[in-house]
Every structure is written in C-alpha cells, then in structure tokens.
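Forum: Protein Structure Q&A
Topic: Joint prediction for protein chains with partners

I've read a bunch of threads here and the consensus seems to be that you should model interacting components together rather than docking separate models afterwards. I'd like to see that in practice. Below is the full input, 539 residues plus whatever partners are listed. Could one of the regulars post the assembled result?
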Amino acid sequence: MKKQVVFKCLKAGFIGLVLLLLYTPILLLAIYSFDKTDLIGRFQGFSFDHYIHLFTDSDVLGMIGNTLLLALIAALLSTVLGTAGALGMYYSKKRVKGVMQALNQVPVINAEIVTALALTVTFVAVNIERSWFTLIVGHMVICTPFVVLSVIPKLKQMDGSLYEAALDLGASPFKALMTVVLPQIIPGVISGFMLAITLSLDDYIVTMYTRPTGFETISTYVYNATTKGNAHTAVTLSSFWALTTIIFLIIVAIVIGSNLIGRRKKEENK
Amino acid sequence: MKIPRFSRKTLCIPYAVFLLFFVLVPMLVILLFAFTDDAMHLSFENFIKFFSDPTKLSTIVYSLVIALVTTVVALLIAYPVAYILAQSKIKRKYVILMLFVLPMWINFVLRVNAIRELFNLISQVEGLDGLANANYFKTIFGMVYDFLPFMILPLYTTMMKIDKSLYEASADLGAGGFTTFARVTLPLSMPGIMSGVTMVFLPSMTNYVVSDMLGNAKVTIIGKFIYTYFGNDWHMGSMIALVLLVVVFLSTWLTGGFKADETVRGTNL
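Posted by a regular:
Agreed with the consensus. Here's the joint model:
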C-alpha cells in the first residue's frame, strides 16, 4: 500500500515538474512586464509603463492590428474554401478525392520554409509583387488544409441518408446542404477556423517571405528585434511582454470559464 | 435532358483550382528553378555545387542530429506524461491536458523570446554563466519546449483508445506491471509514437526561428540556409528546398505517415 502512495507522488511530481518548466518562461515575462526597465535581471520597481506603451504606441498598435487583421482574413477565407473543398471532395469520385487529399497533405507535411520559398519563387517567376494578396495566399496555403482535415471526419460521422431525405422532401440540393448538412459538420468548421487563426497568428516564416515591404506582424518584429536588437527595439519588445501576459490571462480566463460552464451543465443534467 | 443542376461535387472546384495554382505549381516551379540557371537553361550546376559543398552537407547532418535529439528528448518527456494522464482516474484530467496545450496559444515567436529571456537571466547567476554559450543546448531546449504538445497529444489520444480490459486480461494471465507495459501498452501506443515523432522531427529540422533566437546565430540549420539565398539566388535556394522536400517526404514515408485527423494540434480535444 505504501509503495502505491510513493508511486502516486512520483507521478504527480513528474507532471508538476514538466508543467513548471512549461510555465516558468511565461511567468518570468509576466513578472517583468510590471518592471520599470526593459531589462530582465534585477527588478527595478513596479510600474505599468510597458502596458501604457503597448496601448499608446502607434507602431505597436499597428503591428498588433496587422497580425489580427491578417489572421482574421486568412482564417475566414480558408474556412470557406476548406469547408466547400471538403464537402466537394467527400462527394467526388474516388480518383478526384484521392488526388485532392494527397495535394491537401502537401502543405501539412512540408517544411514551412519549403512552402514559403516555393510560393515566393512562383510569384517571382510570374512577376507578382509581394503584397497583401501574396501574404493572404501564403497564409491560406498553410491554413486551408487543416480546415479540410477537421471537416472531413465530421462528414464521415454524418448519416448520409439525411441529405437524401431532405431532397425527397423537396429541398433543393443547395438548401439541403445549408440546412441539413452544414449544421451537422459545424463543429468541424469551427475547430478548423480556430486552428486557422492560431496557425496564422503564430506564423513567422511564410509571413517573412510573402509580406509586402514594411509590413510587420508581431512575429516578424519580435524575431528581428531579438536577433538584431537595439535600444529602440528593446522598448517595443518589452511592451510585448505585457501583451504576452494579457494573452495568457485571457486564455486562463477562457479555460476557467468554460470549465465552470461545463461543470454547471453537468450538475443541471443530474 | 435538363440544365445541369447544382451538384455537391462542384463545391470542390475552387479549392481544386487553389491547390493547383498555389500548391502543385509552386512545387513544379522549384523543381524547374533548381535545375536551371539565371538564363533559364537546363543546368546541373546547383545540384553538383550542393552535393560537393562540405558546409551544406554538414548543415544537413547537423539539422538531422538536432532534430533527432529534440525528438528523443520530447518523446522521453511526453510519453510518461501521456501515460500517467491516460491511466489516471482523477476526474478533471482534461484540465491537466489543457494545461500542456495552453502555452501554444501564445505567439510562437513571443514564447521563444520568453525562453531567451529566461536563459539570459539564468546565465547572469555566477557559476551558470557557461549557459550563455551553450547554444546547442539552448536550441534543443527551445525546440522541445515548443513542440512538446505535438508529442503529448497524439500519444494521449492513442493511449485513451486502448481497451482497458486488455490490462486486466494481461494481469489475469499473470503479467506484472512492467510486462503489461512492454507487451500491451507500448505496442498499442506505437501509432501515437509515430505521429508524435513525425510532428516533432520535421519542424525541428527546419524551423530556424528557434535556432536563430536561442543559438546566438551560431546554430545554422537547413531552414536558415534557404533563407540566406532569399532574393539573391532563387535557383540555389530552390535546390536546397528540393533536397529538403525529398528528406521530409522520405522521413514521413519511413515513419508510416501520420493520421492527421487525430493529431492536428488538438483539433479533437
């Protein structure tokens, strides 16, 4: 019996240790986001300077705006294209389906750098200047396959006869699709959209290759500022510590919130 | 007979066109660029240059070694985590699993920046200042940190699918805890290991953001190499990309590919 208790403690300890490792860097940034200076070392005194800078500096706000706008546009377009694509593929002939699924896997498996370079070289070859268009296409290439991959399982789970029934009852194919099929696959569409957003927000490499000159997202800025930093970038960089802290708090709030709602629902069901 | 009606199949046309122009064509374009020179004549110069340049070849070997170490370390950490969580009988293990995935919602580059700051702080401590130059260690740490969820999630999903009665059967047949693990759990979690390995190995071989930000620009992996040709020599860049493409698809094929629908960034959570 005693042996089991020791074992249990070891297990919990291991999980705890890994979690501690995962969260230490984030907590460090969270603490220093309230520091007066933009150096991590000795804590120089409490202040909201980094937060004020984050919400007032036009450069910083511009970058955040760019990042969010790009993610939103890319994710929306990817979701529409991917959902339609998944539906079409699912009902297509085996050969069409096979070819499309194989092509869909390419950006998933491929190194991002190869995807990025291949696209850029193609744009160069046909003389397309880098612009918002190339940037959004780049993001769509990495996002859409994941939308397709999260919609297809939902299509497989769906009862195929529902669509037939809708047609028999006089619905047009389009109407049947929108009112019968879509509600069945909507969880897959939503998770595909969320996935597309995170992929786009996280992306550095494709953005770097396909962005128009002067366009900065959080990723490109932080990367450049860290690798070739100077005094000016240090101020902006430390305001991103504040941003990291805010994002983190929002996530924690969402998780706790959804957990509480889940618990309440369960209790109600009882 | 009648006007062609709206068919469900037609919905795939936009995506088919998109795949054609932005996935298939670009692959063919780098193939073309890799084997041509500036005047667009057929040339094997880049191919020969690549395979006779010791720096390029050693970079590939370096990248493979870094990726291999990262994958092994990530597996050694992730497997126990997934195993403990899958076996655990506590009610809210879903929440603990979420805790492992949460950091992924913070921007990737910001996360790497956080690790960098942590290392800077630690290396200010006397006696630990050697860390400032431990570029390979820092790079691998950063990669493990960033790609760990990709390893945990597929492992956890496959382990949860294992029929619990198999453990009981194994125990009834007289197997001890270790034998059960080695002969039931491990073989049955193999698909998860394969997916996890693919999902960690491939990005750690090519994602140069981590190695650049944590390795003091001393660690050059193959992805970074391509970037140095950005804008000045598309042909050589294409050649390296092509080699990388072959390596990536070979390793995916070797590990048996991966069931993307169950492993993709916790879509099924």
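Residues 60-212 of chain A form a domain with the MetI-like fold fold (CATH 1.10.3720.10).
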